[in-house]
Specification:
With about 800 residues, the chain is an alpha+beta fold. Helix content is about 20%, strand content about 30%. Strands 25-36-27-32-33-34 form a six-stranded antiparallel sheet. Strands 26-35-28-29-30-31 form a six-stranded antiparallel sheet, with no helix packed on it. The protein is elongated, with a radius of gyration of 43 Å.
Amino acid sequence: MSGFFNGKIMATIPTQVAVPSELPQDLKFNAGKIDEFVTTDEKFYIDRFGNKHRTIAGMNYDSNQAMLNYGYVTKKSFEVGNTIEYSNDILQWENNGEFYRWDGQVPKVVPAGSTPSSAGGMGKGKWIGVGDASLRGELVGPSGLNLIGAYSSIAELMSSTPNEGDRVFVTGYNEGSVVGGGIFNAVRSSLEQDFWRVFDSSVTGIKWIAECRELSLENFGLSGLTENADKLSVLNKAFDYCTSNSIREIKVNDNYSVIENLRLTNKSNVIIIGNGSIEGIYRKNVNNNQNTPEAYDNMRPLLGASKKNSTINVLIFGDSISTDDPNTISFDATMWAKIKSKITDDNPGKEFAFINRAIGGQTWANANTKPTSTDIEWYTDPNEPWVYYVVQPKPDIVIFAFGMNDANGFNAGAMVSTVNKVKSALPEADFIFITTPAPSIAAILPGGYDQPIFQEGRDFAAGFARTFANFYGYSYLDINHYFNMVRDGRDILNCELMKVEEVISSSFIASTYCHDFSLSAVVSSPLIDESKVIAVNCGLDPEDLIYIGISHGKYIVSAKTEYVETYYTTTNPVKYVPEYDHTIQISVINNTFRVWIETALIAEGKVIRHGGRFLPSIKWTSGNGPFSSVTLMSGIPRKIQQTMVDNEIWGIAGEMADTKYPFGGNGVNHYSSKGISGIVSPVLAKSNLKIPNVYNDGIPESYYLSLSQGTIAVIPAKSTREGNVIHLSGSIKSTIENGEPIAFVPKNATPNGTVIVSGLTPSGVARMAVNIDGSIVLASGSAVDLLSLDGVSYAV
């Protein structure tokens, strides 16, 4: 008879007859139970009355537990040999000091010279280690850390419930990362969570505080993130923490890229160092052993001032940065004060009168007309234009210092007009231009100053002032160039060319911003239509253009910009247009442009253009064409060591543009004393403001001609003195009528009496008189199209 018994299928169902029962079915049932007692892995069996009893497996389990509870009997050793008689006997392996118990049937004979492996093997039913020697060995091994429990992330750590004094390990800042973790201690503390070293826990009053933690972006949680918003959030936390704790540097160890579509307010207040990189942060590089900032001397000889035997008048004409007290803590800690000291120091024994005609909040457009406010002591007649008060004191040196308020609204025409007005009234005065820096990116006034329109706008104005002065031979203090190195860690006038785009197209507009460039364009067929002109944009303003056209079967090149019109033209085209597919290459590097046809250089000259990053283009002036392919080599500013932050240069940013202490500045665009020392002073130190003695044989021999209003230099016009002979060079255009001065030679090139010389024009020879006052006057011929001064010489 069979059926279910206590949940199991049994061949025989027993009776409930009292013990002892000799009934056949009870005897047969008990025989099955004996087999179950001996062979099953279960720890107990059920008798015919439903009672539990231990099996052999159960009794072995109990004895093992007893051994664990009451201890082992130790014996020597695998090497010596021995016999395991009981389950709580353990045998030492002297090789590693560990003890092992036998998990199989006892007794167990172990021959001399054995090991756990040779005497039965390791694992369940075999030898099992019972000591901690092996564990200790593994813990001190190279992978011992794997045996210790750890939190997987800072988030998991913060959600834990610690006891004060707990010491734990975190694998990484973010889930799945192995960077940014470390050892943390649970400490009762009132420290604020900083997302770097101190973190909250789920227990009030207890903080997790990291041990020996490096100040790095990884330890703020940058590693392992994939979402751009998460990366920007980490960067903001890191930059804000450093700024609020007056920490200038933070480290980055790996390479990252972001899209800066969220404001990183304090990025310009922190210098990033380390061997890593972060691509995509506007005007931000990582300091990792680049070159240090270096200022340059862009001064020309101050020949106008050299003519004065009496007091030399020096006048500054600009905006608030140039005033006597632009939120400074001392009148000695201003740009104007440093300029006055430099001029005085460079010219011992000379007398100077310094005149300030700067007015806060003004632009070049105001300079060309009237300021927005005339409530100034020296501005006695509000009906007079501003320039009137500039020329009235008859300065020998005029310093132009505008641009901080011009930004993207910079008016090149106003600048050119202002300069021409002053030049007309003061033909012998020396001009010095000061290029403007950019305001604080960290400024927190409404709207902020972090956007490219505010930063590139200042570079836009500075670039025009720089190239204009360089082209016409004026001196300039290039504050903007040095500022870009010191704060932004980049040399905008020393770019490294990198191939970034190659397109199959009849015309081309770049999608990659650059400061300099080289374009190589393949002309797909011979150019024979002389009405067609190729236009190359070479600056941020759409009027910054280089033209390539055809005249009488030859290539000609010209260059123009806003309000200056054409300032360069090839005077003698020499390269015929090839009758086959050929390459035109145009490069604009720093202040110079060059044009090649195949390998022949057909044009080279100084360029006048606006500054700032831009998108180069090349195409017909009307319509597309004529190229089969175009390749762009983009000029990326060379990386420079950043040495200052915005809060140092301008003062600590706040909600008001007022004087900031302890170092001054207004937190936006007025220098602090640190900014003066770190930005202005190095440029002045490098610049030669010594006024030459015209009777000293040691003065430089080559000088630029001073051009009258209505005259422009196509090729910079110079005079070079060799002994008593003056050689002129360069090319000019002039709309000035005959009999009026079109230009002036410097003092060391003035003749003792009027001399008549000849220059070449497209229509023939032009006769010129060089007078004892240095003026050059056309006696015959015209300079409207072009007047070449090359080869003109006379004695003095």
